[in-house]
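Sample entry (286 residues):
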Amino acid sequence: MISSGPAEFATIHAACTDAGHLPVAYFYGRSLRSGGPNLSDAPETTAEILDAVPPGMDLLLPGSMEGLAGALASYRLDLVIVFGFAWKIPQAVLAIPRLGIMNIHVSMLPKYRGPAPLLWAIRNGDTTGGVTVHWMDDDFDTGNVLAQRDGIPLAEDITWKNYCDEAMPVIYNLLMDSLELAAGGYAGEPQDADAATYAGFMEDDFSVIDWSDSARDIHNQVRTYRYMRSTTYPLARIETGEWLHIIRTSLETANGPEIVCGDGLSLWLLESEPGQPPASYSHRAP
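Predicted structure, serialized as C-alpha cells:
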C-alpha cells in the first residue's frame, strides 16, 4: 500500500483485510517526486502513520524510484494499491506486482486527471465529487476503470476531516468491489480520452486574491486553501492597505468586513490573519 496519510492507509488496510487479503507493507510517499525534497509536513505525517501501523507491518519511506522498485520486488507482491502518491511510476515498476498496481483517484475519471482533482473540484464550485479505482498504466490516471462512484458531497465549509467522513466509506466499498474484480482477472473498462480534463497543481498567482474576480470565485479560492490544510492562506489587500491571509469567507450576510467584488456581489470575511505580500502583488486592492 502506497499512500500519503493515516486515514488513507487505514481505509485501504480495512478493505484488504475484510476482503480476506494480507497487507504486507506500507510505503509513505514523502516527496512530490522521486529524489525530491521531503514534504514540509513529512516528519509529522510519518509519526502519525507510524502510530497507526499494525504490529508486524513494515513501513518504508522510499526516496527514489530505484529504492521503491527494489523494495517492491523484494516482497514478491500480488498487488499494489496506491492512494495519494505523486510520482509517475514507470512501466518496469508497474510490472512488478503479479496483478498490477491499482490507484484510487478522487474524481470521476476521465474528469480531473492529474495530481489535484479535488482542489479543482472545489475551485470550480462543484457541489459533489467522485472516486475512481483504476489500473495504473504508464501515463497519469489513464488506466482502465475498475469501479467508480459519484455524488460525494463537497461541503460549503469543506475541510479534510469532513471530506474524509463522507469519502472514506465510499472508497472502502469501491475498493472491496475492485479487489474482487482484480482477483478474478478483470481488465477494467477503458476511459473516454475525449472527455478527459486535467487537474494540475495550483498556479502561483492563485495564492493571491484579486478582488476584480467574482465573489463566488474568490470564495471558492479560499475554500480550496482551507481544504488543502495549507500553512498559509490566500493573501489579499483590503481598503485600509492592510494585507491579510483570508481563512474563511461567506457569500451570505455575516459578521465581518464586507467587500464588493468584481461582479458587484459582496463577500464577507469571517476569519483572517495579518500577512505580508510579495512586492509584485502590491497593486491588488479592493
